[in-house]
From TrEMBL:
InterPro entries: CNG_cation_channel, cNMP-bd_CS, cNMP-bd_dom, cNMP-bd_dom_sf, Ion_trans_dom, RmlC-like_jellyroll. Residues 419-517, 967-1064 form the Cyclic nucleotide-binding domain. It is a multi-pass membrane protein. This is Cyclic nucleotide-binding domain-containing protein. Pfam families: cNMP_binding, Ion_trans. PANTHER family: CYCLIC NUCLEOTIDE-GATED CATION CHANNEL SUBUNIT A. It is found in: Membrane. It comes from the Eukaryota. GO terms for molecular function: intracellularly cyclic nucleotide-activated monoatomic cation channel activity; protein-containing complex binding.
Length: 1114
């Protein structure tokens, strides 16, 4: 048995360590006289020689320790001394905690609650002692503060073993983390905050708060804890920001309210202090009174009395300044939330407005405009399915993470391909890395029958239809693929595949797979064997083989064929006979059809009974009826928001038959809305679902429970509470914004409309706040004071209720006078009470005057709540208004900003005034024609097919001229496609030179709008061009390498010109060799005809007899 190696003896706690100056350190120098080593170090020019053991005793040099050495040694001694204690208590720690881990963030989130608790309790105990003696008798509060210190004892251990970053590297060695924490300034402050000063032998009957003030040292860590709180609740971004805003406001009011109490109680000489009537009130009333005063000053609801002393004045300024900063902080936070929600929605809306204006300016048909707008809306950055959003998100990550995300999303789809199932993960990852992503609009043909395909496609989102002989035989959805055999065989496409919705596809080409197979040659054999096996299987399915057998390969393109109910719809098509009696799916073997038919029959037989209550055909949410439906529901929501608080708060309102009838109608509308949503279509992964059962299940999984809780008649369990239990109807207001946004898809809603709706919401907030304030009157009654917080008795009417029927027989004034229920005074008193309540609500919400002074705890609490909500609401309104105002003119602001930068540049370069005028003229025309946008940049974000449609309508005249060229029909399609893919649109201001004599002829021009004239010199051979005319034909001369223009072209007015570069003309010449000559001849012929027509019109105008003035002497 091998002998154990001797273990180092562990030093006991408290023993003196080897101090630094007792260890040999420095550089060692070998000696020739049997001296083992010497240590040389010089400090302050002094050296001390001490003996060192050696065969020949020789002196050695050591330095005298300095003060820094003593401090470092003491810190090292503490660290070495705590190490065995920590190990014995918590066990050995191999690796320190990761400071970026979620567990550390959760631990710090717990600590922030304790820190805030201490920060609230210490000022309360210190400041309220003079008003409410016996604060230190609250043993529960004090014990909780002391027990909470245990968490910070544990936090010391956590800090000892929490890693840190040094020069970008994460350090997780426990020795390094302990040394760093102990040597930092945080360690002594943490220890000082843990000292139990309250246990000192001091009379703590009045000093319990002051003796715990050392806990406030932990407030220095509040920013760090706040970051951890944001990290833990990162998924709830709005929640984090709102909690921080409300928390900051409440903490500020709490601290300032506690300090306000230190000034004492008001007297006849100084009314600025706390009201005298709260001196003998309970602690809760005193506290709420002080905090309400601070919030009133912050929100400007309460003006306050003028302070009398310097300290009072400084405190007042502090409260006002803090209130202003808090208001700015709230507005900034809400603005940040709205910006994150909008996600550049304003810029995107501006782009849509510019595109819509530009296309209208060029008279592009409305149908094409709608398609372009729809495509951009689906692909925009705020849409979760937008490719641009995915692309921008991936660009924020490092390449390795981006590839890993893409691999995780697509690996299951790729491995579902039959001949990729047996491939390694590295091979699958390589395939996914080389894929190309494409976003396609609706009704776009991905491939056509007879095409020679070399590409395979994977469906990320959207729905594609597979068409054979213009009949849809099946659909492809997320996770599907098609064209897999085209990667390895030279077969032609046997079906058309078109997009039924907006789709995002991943393309894998033959070039890509060849490149990957070259890197992984071991995978080539199994893949080719699998391809050959599949091909033979498909050929053997039909006796004749051939094309119809190859159509069966489509069954491999959807792995969810047997599991998706959407494919059952395709199965119905496969099993349904056509007019001539043959089956649509005749290209698929009978075995597959029988399997699909069995699945379809089993799914049909398993339909639950509740589906019979659904409509046979679901309601299409895109119909105009949906808009009317939503508007009706929104009106019911507004009605409930107004009526329910009014009936609950005001006894004089009663519950008349008209109110009962209106409530019944409103409930019927809401129940019909629920049934309608059970049968309402929805959009999932860009697919519009129109199946009754699927629509009902979708609603049951999403909003059904919430809607039912808001609509259910809860008063059936307690009929006397019918009025108050209708309050649950108000929670439907949370759906109001979503319903309003859905209405905006049917009706164009601009910023003015949105601000009007926001104003209506503000009025409803006045109404609800006033009703809440008046509800307190039912319990507290009316007051004797005319201007008190409660309504005065002069506007009180007490109902006299019949003990038998429960009806109101009469009303009684405060002086005992009785009036019947039909008296006009009843409505007059109701109006007075309502006006007073709404006025108070408006004051609390938006500071429109001075509020009534509360007296009791309930009054203070309600006033504080309304002022807090009002401050947040005002900040929200300011944010919404500025957002809507700026959103209505984003493109104008951007244009004006660009205009200012250009003019500033010209001014800085000292450009002449004439150049300033020309620039201003061009910019003004650019704004009037294209809203300051570049049409080429706007259209470039659309698919190629849409771009060609748009440019085809804009450049219609030249396309007509190309169509008239000789023998062009055979190559017309590729010719036009090349032309439309390379044409550019350019604006020119009035009197601008488009080109001059001698300029390089690098482009051909076509006039779209405006007036352009060409001439040689001194306006000789002047030719006025018409819309659709070509000029700059020198670029059509390919006999020389470079050519120059032989005439001048000037814009007689602001104009729009299409530009075709010489390189594009060369490409067109390759497709159609006579293009340049044909265009030149036809353009010259059209020019001669236009010249002759203009000359004839001038001659005709010259021979027209002038009318004779009968009053003349001629």
């Amino acid at each position: 048995m091998p002998a154990k190696s001797p273990q180092p003896k562990r030093r006991a706690w408290g023993s003196v360590p080897n101090l630094p100056w007792r260890r040999p350190y420095g550089h060692r120098v070998a000696s020739s006289d049997f001296v083992t080593s010497v240590s040389v170090r010089q400090v302050s020019g002094r050296e001390v020689v001490t003996p060192q053991s050696s065969p020949r005793k020789r002196p050695r040099l050591v330095r005298i320790p300095s003060l820094q050495d003593h401090v470092a040694a003491l810190q090292q001694w503490i660290a070495d001394g705590m190490k065995p204690l920590v190990s014995s208590c918590f066990g050995p720690s191999v690796v320190a905690f990761d400071p970026t881990s979620t567990k550390v963030a959760m631990w710090q989130t717990v600590l922030v609650t304790i820190v805030l608790y201490d920060a609230l309790m210490v000022p309360l105990l210190v400041c309220f002692e003079q008003l409410h003696h016996g604060m230190c008798t609250f043993n529960g509060v004090l014990r909780l503060m002391d027990v909470a210190d245990v968490a910070f004892v544990v936090d010391v251990y956590v800090q000892l073993f929490t890693g840190y970053f040094h020069n970008g590297d994460l350090v997780v060695r426990p020795a390094s983390t302990r040394r760093r924490y102990i040597r930092s300034r945080q360690f002594p402050l943490d220890i000082l905050a843990l000292l139990p000063l309250a246990w000192l032998p001091i009379d703590g009957s009045t000093l319990c708060g002051a003796l715990r003030a050392n806990k406030l040292l932990r407030l220095r860590r509040l920013p760090q804890y706040t970051i951890a709180f944001d990290k833990v609740f990162a998924r709830y971004f709005k929640f984090c920001k709102i909690v921080k805003v409300v928390g900051a406001l409440c903490v500020f009011c709490h601290v300032m309210g506690c300090l306000y109490v230190l000034f004492g109680i008001a007297d006849d000489d100084n009314k600025w202090k706390l009201e005298a009537h709260v001196a003998h009130e309970p602690l809760a009333t005193q506290y709420v009174a002080a905090v309400s005063w601070v919030l009133g000053i912050v929100s400007h609801v309460a003006e306050g009395v003028i302070p009398r002393t310097v300290w009072q004045t400084l405190f007042m300024y502090t409260v006002q300044l803090g209130g202003f900063l808090l208001f700015v902080y709230i507005c900034g936070t809400l603005f940040m939330i709205s910006k994150c929600d909008a996600n550049n929605r304003e810029q995107f809306d501006a782009k849509l407005n510019q595109l819509r204006y530009v296309l209208s300016f060029h008279r592009v048909p409305t149908e094409i405009q709608d398609q372009a707008i729809e495509f951009l809306e689906v692909q925009c950055t705020f849409h979760p399915r937008g490719e641009s959003q995915d692309r921008s998100n991936m660009q924020l990550l490092c390449p390795s993470i981006s590839k890993e995300v893409k691999y995780t999303l697509l690996k299951d789809t790729v491995t579902a391909v039959p001949f990729f199932k047996s491939c390694s993960a590295a091979f699958i990852r390589a395939i996914i890395d080389v894929m190309e992503t494409r976003s396609l609009p609706t009704n776009f043909f991905v491939c056509r029958t007879g095409d020679h395909g070399e590409d395979m496609y994977f469906v990320q989102s959207g729905v594609l239809a597979v068409l054979i002989d213009n009949v849809k035989v099946r659909e492809l959805r997320k996770g599907g693929f098609f064209g897999e055999l085209s990667l390895f065989t030279n077969q032609v496409r046997t079906a058309d595949v078109a997009t039924a919705t907006f789709c995002i596809l991943h393309r894998l080409s033959r070039v890509h797979i060849t490149r990957v197979l070259n890197a992984y040659p071991e995978a080539e054999g199994p893949i080719l064997e699998s391809v050959e096996k599949i091909s033979e299987e498909l050929e053997s399915k039909m006796p004749k083989g051939g094309e119809m057998a190859r159509r069966g390969s489509l069954q491999y393109s959807d792995t969810a064929l047997r599991n998706s109910t959407s494919n059952m719809r395709s199965a119905k098509l496969l099993l349904s006979p056509m007019a001539d009696g043959r089956m649509i799916g005749s290209g698929i073997d009978r075995k597959t059809i029988s399997v699909i038919a069995g699945a379809l029959r089993s799914s049909t037989q398993a339909e639950p009974l509740w589906t019979r209550a659904l409509l046979a055909k679901p309601l299409d949410r895109r119909k105009r009826l949906r808009c009317v439906w939503i508007l009706a529901v929104m009106m019911v929501t507004i009605y409930n928001m107004f009526t329910v608080p009014l009936v609950c708060a005001f006894e004089l309102m009663g519950y008349s038959m008209s109110v009962l009838l209106l409530n019944t109608v409103a409930d019927i509308v809401l129940w019909m809305d629920m049934y309608g949503k059970l049968n309402l279509s929805y959009v999932m992964e860009a697919e519009h679902i129109l199946e009754s059962k699927e629509c009902a299940l979708h609603y049951l999984r999403t909003d059904f429970a919430y809607d039912l809780a808001c609509i259910f008649p809860w008063w059936v369990f307690h009929p006397p509470s019918h009025e108050s239990l209708r309050f649950v109807r108000l929670f439907r207001v949370l759906n109001f914004l979503a319903e309003f946004e859905e209405v905006s898809t049917f009706v164009r809603i601009n910023s003015r409309h949105r601000i009007a709706v926001l104003g209506m919401g503000l009025l409803l907030s006045y109404h609800i706040a006033g009703c809440l304030a008046h509800t307190y009157t039912r319990d507290a009654g009316f007051a004797d004071m005319e201007f008190g917080w409660l309504p005065p008795k002069s506007i009180e009417l007490k109902p006299i209720v019949n003990a038998i029927t429960g009806d109101v027989d009469a009303y009684k004034y405060s002086n005992g006078t009785v009036i019947p229920p039909t008296s006009p005074d009843v409505n007059r008193f109701l109006l007075l009470q309502y006006a007073r309540a709404v006025q108070y609500g408006a004051v609390c919400i938006t500071n429109l005057g001075r509020t009534y002074e509360p007296v009791t705890f309930a009054e203070y609490s309600l006033a504080f709540s309304l002022m807090l909500i009002g401050m947040l609401l005002v900040s929200l309104i300011i944010d919404e208004v500025q957002k809507r105002v700026t959103a209505s003119a984003v493109e104008q602001m951007e244009f004006l900003s660009t205009r200012s930068r250009i003019l500033h540049f010209l001014k800085r370069q000292k450009a002449p005034a004439e150049l300033h005028r020309r620039v201003l003229a061009y910019l003004d025309f650019s704004w009037s024609a294209h809203r300051g946008a570049d049409i080429n940049g706007l259209v470039s974000e659309l698919p190629n097919t849409m771009q060609r449609d748009i440019y085809g309508y804009i450049c219609g005249p030249i396309l007509e001229m190309i169509a008239r060229l000789d023998h062009v029909s055979d190559v017309y399609e590729p010719l036009i496609t090349t032309f439309l893919d390379h044409v550019k649109i350019q604006l020119y201001g009035q009197d601008e030179m488009i080109y001059r004599v001698g300029d390089i002829g690098d482009a051909m021009y076509m006039l779209l709008q405006g007036n352009v004239a060409t001439y040689v010199e001194a306006y000789s051979q002047l030719r006025e061009l018409n819309q659709g005319d070509l000029f700059g034909l020198a670029s059509l001369n390919f006999s020389v390498e470079y050519t120059a223009h032989t005439d001048n072209a000037t814009a007689r007015s602001a104009c729009v010109v299409a530009i075709i570069s010489r390189k594009t003309v060369a490409l067109l010449n390759q497709i159609y060799p006579r293009f340049a000559d044909g265009v030149k001849k036809r353009s010259q012929r059209m020019g001669r005809q236009a010249t002759m027509h203009a000359k004839a019109m001038a001659d005709k105008k010259a021979v027209v007899p002038q009318a004779i003035n009968p009053d003349s002497n001629a």
